[in-house]
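[audit] Reproducing an earlier prediction to check determinism. Same input, same settings, fresh worker. If the tokens differ from the archived copy the diff job will pick it up downstream; this log only records the rerun itself.
[audit] input (126 residues):
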Amino acid sequence: MNIPENLKYSKEHEWVRVDGDIAYVGITDFAQSELGDIVFVEIDTVGDTIDADEIFGTIEAVKTVSDLFMPVGGEVLELNDKLEDDPELVNTDPYGDGWLIKVKMTDASQLDHLMDASAYGEMINA
């Protein structure tokens, strides 16, 4: 299971990559493998400010639909447009081209409540 060291992780299996006060959010390799083939990503919260742990969208796989939870609070600036035509990028490149949203964080200290790669690895292997 791929768990990059440079990211932070939520207990709901979202990852965060930080660039200044901007956070890129996606789902982990573990989450996409559990969901199976991703067929649709629905995120209609662009422009909204959402608190940490609130739902920002849904992701649909062949066998299920799952809520997506904000790992850090902030304004949803952008949806990854590539996912509209190619939702399986979440399966093939979950930490790269398969990112979901870009967020302007309201409180970067919320990152301290997320797990590092080691802690996330322990959680999914427990």
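[audit] rerun output stored. Observation attached for the diff report: The longest helix spans residues 117-124.
[audit] end
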